[in-house]
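Narrative summary of target 7.
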Amino acid sequence: MDNYDPSSAAYKKARRQYLKTTKNRTKDLDAEWTPFRAAEKRYKARFPPPDLSHVLDLTTATCDAETLASGQSFYCNGVEIKLLDTNESTSSGVGKAFSVPRVPGLVILPSFVSPQDQRRLVRWALRDHARHPNETNLDAHYILPDEGLWNAHLNSDAPLVRTRACPESSDTEYGNSGPRQLVSNTPADPANFQSMLRSPKPPPAPSPTVSPTSPTALISKLRWANIGWSYHWGSKQYDFTKGKGRVDNEIRAICKRAVSSVNWKEVFGQSDEEGWGDENWRSWHETYEPDAGIVNYYQIKDTLMAHVDRSEVCATSPLVSISLGNAAIFLIGGLTRDVEPTAILLRSGDVVIMSGPACRRAYHGVPRILEDTLPDHFSLKADGEGFSSWTSYDLYMRTTRININVRQVFPKGFDPGLQVEN
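Modeled conformation, tokenized:
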């Protein structure tokens, strides 16, 4: 990457920007940062470029046959990991699964999704999913085309996308406008579910400053699309009044296959961890049923700052995360930001499973998308599937990472008392 070459224009530009922005910075400012915030700053920095030597990269994970056979943990990039037994092989024939003992319940499946399936999932995420009835970040401000934003983008004759500006007189009560507010929401559980169900969830206010825009200009502003149950960003709770959206069959199958491939006894068999409630990892092969999620569309300079997922009533079942496109640095720590996070390099096709009470309530985030890390199988040269229109996908993915993360909102057998249509 050019940022690591002192003679490159990118390196020199980053250095100039760094000197300009830090000229008047207090020398001891970083002393106030929590360990998680310090890690975010370190990996987010354009200058000096971050040192990746302590970022867990499972493509370099090697150990001797005796260690593998013993089931003992070993170290990779300074991070303790353990190779797990798996119940299947991926299309590459490797079928490896790793746990990170420092974060009980964290499992990584490198290259779990085949190159061909990765390309198919990219098509699904852009062409098929980011459209009505699946809500996106743009729906609050624009009246998106019925055929979907991506399909309109491919149509050179598509009209401008109209705005959804607030009418002067309206009975609708909107949520706060402007930048998203930091919300520390109460963790959902069966006891407080009914009160959360009744709490107001006003729609976000349409921006009065946006103008009609071409679909092509809006594509770069697409950041998320909802899966399954509708998530209300203003309150960080689910809005069950909107009903349950569809979970795509292929996404559902990949998530269930990932969970079924792990030998959970190796992960939790020796654990005396509290906080499980009625949930039990021993039955996940039968009870895990993904019913909600988000597709995230990251551009190169985008980040996802430290946060905790507290919205699901089912607080321990697996959250399955699929990486597509450019690689990213993923940070995961503990129950507070004071825990030093583990940094993990996630490549296209990798699957991460967050499970159990410690991992599902751990702070995590994505401080960096790594430039120029798109795998070759996303290029036109690799197109042997008869896709005549892959060019637009190839161009878009050169500066993009797509993340599909899916979770289970309700424990198996829990009756939420909702009168909704699936």
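The first strand starts at residue 74 and ends at 76.
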